[in-house]
Amino acid sequence: ISFTEALQHFQSAELSASRGKLRAPGRRGTLAALLRCLRGPPRLCPQLRGEQELALAMAQCALDDSERVHMRILQTIYRQLTRSRLGCPRYGAHWEELGFQGRTGSSPLPEEIPKIHSNLPWNHPVLSQLPQPLSLSFLNAGILVVSQNFPFCIMSVNITRIVIQALQEERLSRECNRRQQVIGVLNDLHAAAFLRLSRLWEQQHGTVADAGFFLKELELSTKKKPRQLLKSLEAYLSR
């Protein structure tokens, strides 16, 4: 399935249950509003609110085995990452090889997945349950680079969580307003954060034990310097 077709499905789908889980922004007092005007991020343009709500509702949408589009998305992820021309069984160890938790091809929703903290010991249950087989990263556009002990899918889910939180906290409003889009910014920021992660992993000879430290650094970069991350991605792709 193409990204465009998948997005069109969610645009036309009934996501009322997912939308009901969205948290309304808290009310701000007069002082907070003044401080925001002086140094805070701008508010998202009203015409982009619908796209923002759609993105947040999609993030709350659970994988449904009975939904054909969901299964096509899952199969496409497998085929794109492995460069296989064939599909795969719904359940099996092949999902663990891509860094999913368990053999189902699905990880918990971003809000449910455990955060990996840098101060956790190696034998902590969260770290000990992380997959450590085949590792995949997008160091080269269209070419998979295999690197040992890189938990690809769980890191991707955590980066998704970070990007979604940045959107909820209106850290991305300036960039969304500039580009007049939300989902495109989210996709590019996810890719930019993954590029930053792959560089950190390579430069510091990362292991799963370093995952918490790297995620903390990615969270700071994504929320504090999203434009800098995006420029780094643009420079990389231009080469």
Characterization of this structure:
It is a single chain. By secondary structure, this protein is mainly alpha-helical. It has one domain. The chain has 12 helices and 2 strands; from the N terminus they run αααααααββααααα. The protein has helices spanning 3-12, 16-19, 30-39, 49-59, 68-82, 94-97, 125-128, 152-168, 173-179, 183-203, 211-224, 226-238; strands at 136-140, 143-146. It has a two-stranded antiparallel ribbon with strand order 1-2. Helix 8 packs parallel to helix 11 (211-224), helix 10 crosses helix 11 and helix 10 packs across helix 12. It is globular and about 55 Å long. 20% of the residues are buried. Mean pLDDT is 76; it is low at 108-146.
Number of domains: 1
What are the segments in which pLDDT stays under 50 over at least 5 consecutive residues?
108-146
How would you name the oligomeric state of the polypeptide chains in this document? single chain
Order of helices and strands: HHHHHHHEEHHHHH
DSSP helix count? 12
Mean pLDDT, as a whole number?
76
Q: How much helix is in the residues?
A: 40-55%
Radius of gyration of CA atoms, rounded to a whole number: 18 Å
Strand content: under 5%
- State the end-to-end distance: 28 Å
Strand arrangement within the widest β-sheet reads 1-2
Q: Summarize the main sheet.
A: 2 strands, antiparallel
Q: What best-fitting shape do the alpha-carbon axes yield?
A: globular
Query: How many beta-strand elements?
Result: 2
Please identify the structural class as seen in this structure. mainly alpha
